[in-house]
Amino acid sequence: MNILDRIIETKKNEVASQKRMVSVSQLKKYPGYRRNCNSLKETLQKPGSSGIIAEFKQKSPSKGEINFSVKAEEVTKDYTNAGAAGLSVLTDYEYFGGTLANLAKAREVNPDIPILRKDFMIDTYQVVEAKAFGADVILLIAACLEKEEAEVLAKKAKSLGLEVLMEVHNEEELEKLNDFVDIVGVNNRNLKTFEVDVETSVKLARLIPGRFVKISESGLAGAETIHYLRKSGFKGFLIGETFMKTENPGKACKKLIAELSFLT
């Protein structure tokens, strides 16, 4: 069993437990469920957008502990002030140290910026949960979903006003795209081996239909790499570890965005 398989097995148990604790009807009473969502798709396409989707991630299966000395509300606010186009908040606890509480805190202090709930979505319950806790966008990972499952989850998200980011890693996974997807993210990290290659984005860029906004994920350590990927049509760049491994993630984000301004 590879890492991704283990994560999904754990996630199935987590979702089942969460359903027993908080019902869908209860989630629909949360303040976040009633709010109008911010559009990441539109933000990434605005002239002058940094394109940076700054992530709050405290650990990972491949790197272990990254940074537990900072708070979600402080870091995400700093990201916003630095000029990030969007935020990403991990909510998987077992493998990434994330929580729904972190998502809610990020939402509270950043009301106007698009926020992605970063998790392994396998059940429509999680889509409702994402809306209730203040997300604007959900992540669907093609590697852990069948085509029909992805469509059901994406359709549910759109019915709630959420946008959908579909993450792919190879050409075969592009076949799982559907009409409810807004953004296609190319993960340069193979989730089964955790090896990273930025050329994965370049190779897949020309195969992604033009109606989708393209973003690149993982292994994006510097302005030159982002500038290189922009030439292949990428509008967004999801960056977490590069920022989070520093003492001041917001400052690191601001520095990168400043460097990008010299290359545009």
From TrEMBL:
UniProt GO MF annotations: indole-3-glycerol-phosphate synthase activity; phosphoribosylanthranilate isomerase activity
Organism: Mariniphaga sediminis
Sequence ranges assigned to domain Indole-3-glycerol phosphate synthase in this UniProt record: 4-256
GO biological processes: L-tryptophan biosynthetic process
Any matching Pfam family: IGPS
Top-level EC class as recorded in UniProt: lyase
Name of this chain's protein: Indole-3-glycerol phosphate synthase
Pathway in which the depicted protein is active: Amino-acid biosynthesis; L-tryptophan biosynthesis; L-tryptophan from chorismate: step 4/5
Similarity field: Belongs to the TrpC family.
Catalytic activity: 1-(2-carboxyphenylamino)-1-deoxy-D-ribulose 5-phosphate + H(+) = (1S,2R)-1-C-(indol-3-yl)glycerol 3-phosphate + CO2 + H2O
Key words, A-Z: Amino-acid biosynthesis, Aromatic amino acid biosynthesis, Decarboxylase, Lyase, Tryptophan biosynthesis
Origin superkingdom: Bacteria
UniProt-listed Enzyme Commission number(s): 4.1.1.48
